[in-house]
Amino acid sequence: MNTIQPPLETPTLLPLRPLGYHGAVCDFKRRLIEATLLQMRGNRTHTARVLGLQRTYLLRLIRELGVAAPPPPVTRRRAAAG
Fold it and tell me: Whole-model pTM?
């Protein structure tokens, strides 16, 4: 007999209090930036480019909106040949 399995992830619950227009806009911006950062593997420069923002403005939004940003990618520099 086939049974329907519940989804593995629980759906996101609505906030207990209404956000209002500005709260909803801020929440949307935060989630959009978080999702794009995840797609760009934490690269903030690429994230800004994809979103059509200046990198410095993206950094400001990350700080102001409390974005759960992954740490910036580690760049590996080659040792100077010599």
Answer: 0.65
